[in-house]
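R.M. (postdoc): so does anyone remember the format we settled on? I'll just put the structure tokens first.
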């Protein structure tokens, strides 16, 4: 018998699970449709994005639309009935959605990353089982990171073998998407210290998800504490995630490129808001000699600079997606390292432009842009919060070691 020592005093604050979709999700047919569907959804999601942020309204209907649209299965292999779009397309989809609402864009990140991992490490039977779930519209959340560990990759959550199932115990935080997920992949260690994805049913006894995410940014990513108290996970849903990092694979770069896409989307949203505000609400400065704010030469120069830097980040994002495609098709030390390096470059530029654009918004739009009624600070708050994932100061180190000394990046989910 397994005796749990997990602290369950907060279990009364649990959020109940949501029902599985009544109808099968749509299946995207190709890359062009994926982009078109993302643009259509983004046009809807942006309408109430400010209100959702201000009042911390969960995007329940929007998330159902998103996952039922087929965009949550776009990296399921064709051999299993999926569209298997390019990772350049997948990144563009997340960028488009994130420009409308970056919290919604982030919610899909770990789901898509786990789908990629299943392709890499699972056997054919497990792939068939889990990909069928994804194609039906089942959403994976995540229970990966832990709050009190020394490093992000240090896990105290463990599982034990109990015949046809495993028993998992631990506690997680930063669990984006877990509140409204149907299945929750839990990173847990086996007796040898190897990390697996133990994919538990969201309503499994002992699995408690608490709505206690209190960050000032990315406020509706449906994150929070996950308590795992003797949770049973069938062996069919125990995925050997560690195999994605004990040899060169694109798994780490895939998790990373989705982070990059979210930040690029935030930058796009901030620049769009700046242009709209300057064109409709800002006043020309008294010494400018012009009648309209949009004719201010310094504002013109700044918008040109921001847009140029955004386009550079977008170009690297696309290049990274194509490099990941090559690494997925032919995973060698060289193709994987190239994908990691280009993705790291994109991460640096996307972080820099997201912070710059969300900050410059107020300088160019003027004092009235800070009024609460506009809630424009949400873009800076989102950028500042989300770019803290995978700090760019370490990306510079990875790039320098690679280009100067030929040292390949480490193999893990943060590289």
């Amino acid at each position: 018998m397994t005796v749990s020592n997990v602290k369950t005093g907060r279990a009364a604050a649990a959020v109940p699970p949501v029902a599985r979709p009544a109808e099968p999700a749509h299946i995207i047919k190709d890359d062009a449709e994926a982009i078109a569907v993302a643009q259509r959804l983004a046009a809807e999601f942006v309408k109430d994005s400010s209100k959702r942020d201000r009042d911390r309204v969960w995007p329940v209907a929007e998330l159902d639309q998103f996952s039922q649209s087929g965009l949550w299965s776009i990296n399921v292999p064709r051999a299993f009935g999926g569209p298997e779009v390019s990772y350049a397309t997948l990144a563009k989809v997340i960028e488009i959605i994130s420009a409308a609402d970056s919290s919604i864009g982030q919610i899909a990140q770990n789901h898509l990353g786990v789908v990629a991992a299943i392709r890499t490490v699972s056997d054919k039977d497990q792939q068939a089982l889990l990909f069928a779930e994804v194609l039906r519209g089942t959403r994976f959340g995540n229970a990966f990171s832990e709050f009190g560990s020394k490093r992000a990759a240090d896990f105290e959550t463990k599982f034990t073998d109990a015949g046809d199932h495993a028993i998992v115990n631990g506690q997680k935080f930063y669990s984006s998407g877990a509140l409204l997920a149907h299945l929750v992949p839990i990173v847990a260690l086996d007796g040898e210290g190897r990390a697996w994805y133990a994919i538990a049913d969201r309503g499994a006894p002992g699995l408690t998800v608490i709505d206690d995410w209190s960050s000032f940014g990315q406020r509706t990513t449906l994150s929070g504490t996950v308590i795992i108290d003797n949770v049973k996970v069938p062996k069919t849903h125990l995925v050997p995630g560690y195999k994605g990092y004990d040899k060169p694979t694109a798994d780490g770069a895939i998790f990373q490129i989705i982070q990059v896409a979210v930040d690029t989307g935030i930058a796009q949203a901030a620049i769009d808001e700046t242009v709209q505000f300057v064109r409709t609400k800002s006043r020309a400065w008294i010494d400018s000699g012009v009648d309209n704010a949009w004719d201010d030469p310094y504002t013109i120069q700044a918008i040109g600079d921001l847009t140029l830097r955004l386009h550079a980040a977008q170009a690297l994002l696309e290049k990274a997606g194509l490099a990941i495609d090559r690494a997925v098709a032919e995973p060698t030390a060289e193709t994987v390292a190239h994908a990691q390096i280009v993705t790291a470059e994109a991460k640096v530029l996307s972080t820099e432009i997201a912070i710059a654009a969300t900050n410059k918004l107020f300088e160019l739009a003027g004092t009235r842009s800070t009024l609460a009624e506009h809630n424009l600070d949400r873009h800076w708050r989102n950028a500042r919060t989300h770019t803290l994932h995978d700090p760019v100061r370490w990306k510079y180190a990875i790039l320098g070691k690679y280009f100067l000394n030929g040292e390949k990046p480490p193999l893990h989910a943060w590289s």
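R.M.: ...and that's the designed sequence above, right after the tokens. Also worth knowing: Confidence is low (pLDDT under 50) at residues 1-5. Residues 147 and 173 are 6 Å apart (CA to CA).
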